[in-house]
Structure formats: C-alpha cells, structure tokens
C-alpha cells in the first residue's frame, strides 16, 4: 500500500505544474510534468512487477 500512496502523492504533486503548463503556457512546468509522468510510469511498472511476483509465489 505504501507504493500506492506514493502514486497518489506524485499525481497530486503534479497538479500545480499541469495547471501552469496547460492554462498558463509555462514551458518549464511542462518539463516537470514530463519528468513526473516518467516517474509515475516507472513506479507503476515496479508495482506491477511486485504484484506479479506476489501472485506467482502464492500459486
């Protein structure tokens, strides 16, 4: 569950940068959004692997 909390915190932390990029045209915020989304992808992949390993151990 800790990794799920990490995902929630990451997404909520990006909210301001999304607003700055899409509504105010701040290009630097777009860079931060892209970095945050890459971090989100990596975290999601790690969780996916963890769930798969846990599932395989129980079978």
- Counting helices, strands and paired strands, the structural category is mainly alpha
Oligomer: single chain
Shape: elongated
**Strand fraction band?**
under 5%
Number of domains: 1
Biggest pleated-sheet summary: none
For the residues shown, what is the average pLDDT? 94
Unreliable stretches (pLDDT < 50, length at least 5) are none
How far the N terminus sits from the C terminus, by CA atoms, comes to 21 Å
What's the helical proportion of residues?
Answer: over 70%
Number of strands: 0
Structural Rg: 15 Å
Q: DSSP helix count?
A: 2
What is the helix/strand order? HH
Overview of the structural elements:
The chain has 59 residues and is mostly helical. The chain is built from 2 helices and no strands. The protein has one domain. The two termini are 21 Å apart. Helix content is 93%, strand content 0%. Helix 1 runs antiparallel to helix 2.
SSE map:
Layout (H helix, E strand, L loop, with lengths): L1 H23 L2 H32 L1
Helix pairs in contact: 1-2
Please describe the structure with a list of short key phrases separated by commas or semicolons.
elongated, 59 residues, 0% strand, mainly alpha
Q: Quick summary of this structure?
A:
Helix content is 93%, strand content 0%. It has 2 helices and no strands. The longest helix is centred in the C-terminal third of the chain and has 32 residues.
């Amino acid at each position: 569950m800790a990794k799920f909390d990490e995902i929630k915190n990451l997404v909520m932390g990006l909210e301001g940068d999304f607003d700055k990029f899409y509504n105010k045209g701040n290009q630097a915020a777009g860079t931060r959004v892209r970095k945050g989304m890459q971090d989100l992808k990596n975290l999601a992949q790690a969780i996916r692997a963890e769930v798969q390993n846990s599932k395989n151990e129980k079978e």
